[in-house]
């Protein structure tokens, strides 16, 4: 790439200008060439990807033919696509909650939460056209020039509601995740419209708002099964904090060596996920449930028009372990870039969380201690992904 350059003092050059050399000189105007950073140099790579906001997409756009060492996962974390089976659970038809099959649908939701912690829903009330628009908008956003996205990096973002980044906790990970993302926290409509990126704010906000009734219906079913009635006065205690993310998984030259997202469970209450048609979402079947394939990873296959729902850590804690927050991960692909758009719902940061008293009474004891949710958040975001280790923050040691 060639840059026309008229000499003037250069202050704080960007990290990706590792080496600049003059090509020609003509009437005091010089043409300089930008040299790509060395992706074999860990510091150079980190600056380019994380600090300068180029992300994984910047690496791919540079024309690499192999994955940089920093992204190669330990063998135990690599995903063998061929050995994984597909989840056979049919999607749950939420339109039947309003009819004579209400109780049966509630039972399906509860059963899924008690076993895999993941299920898919159709006839959920979110227009399919909006889902298609979300996927296209995500691709459009991540196709923007790096400098347009990098203004939302955590260190410089003009809004505390918006964060653009890559991987999960790059400073603490043994191997980086092959993912870029934009995260948009919701406070109210006005602040979302003013502060979320203009390129994706409208569809993201519409997704959040049109999914609210579905989330409430799911939560009513799951809490009702625990003997807890969900009314307006309690809603913020369970899902008062909401966030919309757009995730981008660029094509990868060696998908077998990388992960898009490492093993983890979500920290909140319920996650609502729109995945595209490419696939790559894997869930681990818990060891302590009555299901086949215990301990194995199964793929959640994309279903046109469906949304994926997964149980988060808070719902596992409120249920005293009856509901399973799903351990999941994402593989990469060499054929086509993939997007996913999750909505994360969780308690307000100031909310105290503990197993529901009626469940503890029935179980004969609590498996988790009481805590303030903001403290759980700090622990969750302060560590790299490591399966369901996040729950150790709240577990009561039974030994």
From TrEMBL:
Residues 234-347 form the Fe2OG dioxygenase domain. Keywords: Dioxygenase, Iron, Metal-binding, Oxidoreductase. One of its GO terms (biological process) is coumarin biosynthetic process. Its cofactor is L-ascorbate. It comes from Gossypium gossypioides. GO terms for molecular function: dioxygenase activity; metal ion binding. This is Fe2OG dioxygenase domain-containing protein. Belongs to the iron/ascorbate-dependent oxidoreductase family. InterPro entries: DIOX_N (IPR026992), IPNS-like_FE2OG_OXY (IPR044861), IPNS-like_sf (IPR027443), Oxoglu/Fe-dep_dioxygenase_dom (IPR005123).
């Amino acid at each position: 790439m060639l840059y026309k350059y008229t000499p003037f003092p250069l202050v704080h050059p960007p990290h990706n200008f590792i080496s600049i050399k003059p090509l020609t000189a003509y009437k005091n105007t010089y043409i300089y060439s930008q040299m790509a950073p060395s992706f074999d140099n860990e510091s150079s790579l980190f600056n380019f990807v994380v600090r300068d906001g180029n992300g994984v997409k910047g690496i791919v756009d540079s024309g690499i033919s192999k994955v940089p060492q920093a992204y190669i996962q330990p063998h135990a974390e690599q995903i063998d696509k061929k050995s994984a089976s597909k989840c056979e659970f049919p999607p749950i038809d939420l339109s039947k909650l309003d009819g004579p099959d209400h109780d049966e649908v509630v039972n399906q939701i509860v059963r899924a939460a008690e076993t895999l912690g993941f299920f898919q829903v159709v006839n959920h009330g979110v227009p399919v056209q909006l889902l298609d628009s979300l996927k296209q908008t995500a691709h459009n956003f991540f196709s923007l020039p790096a400098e347009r996205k990098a203004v939302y990096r955590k260190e410089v973002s003009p809004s505390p509601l918006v964060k653009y980044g890559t991987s999960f906790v790059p400073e603490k990970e043994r191997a980086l995740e092959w993912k870029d993302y934009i995260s948009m926290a919701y406070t109210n409509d006005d602040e979302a419209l003013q502060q979320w990126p203009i390129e994706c704010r409208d569809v993201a906000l519409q997704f959040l708002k049109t999914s609210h009734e579905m989330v409430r219906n799911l939560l009513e079913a799951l809490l009702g099964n625990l003997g807890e009635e969900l009314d307006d006065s309690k809603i913020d205690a369970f899902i008062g904090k909401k966030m919309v993310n757009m995730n981008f998984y660029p094509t990868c030259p060696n998908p077998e060596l990388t992960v898009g997202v490492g093993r983890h469970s979500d920290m909140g209450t319920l996650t609502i996920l729109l995945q595209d048609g490419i696939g790559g979402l894997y869930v681990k079947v818990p060891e302590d449930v009555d299901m086949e394939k215990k301990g194995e990873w199964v793929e959640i296959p994309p279903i046109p028009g469906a949304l994926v729902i997964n149980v988060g850590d808070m719902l596992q804690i409120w249920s005293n372990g009856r509901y399973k927050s799903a351990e999941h991960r994402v593989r990469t692909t060499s054929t086509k870039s993939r997007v996913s758009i999750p909505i994360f719902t969780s308690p307000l940061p100031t909310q105290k969380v503990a197993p529901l008293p009626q469940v503890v009474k029935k179980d004969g004891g609590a498996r988790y201690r009481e805590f303030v949710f903001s403290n759980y958040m700090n622990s969750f975001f302060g560590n790299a992904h490591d399966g369901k280790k996040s729950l150790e923050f709240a577990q009561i040691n039974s030994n």
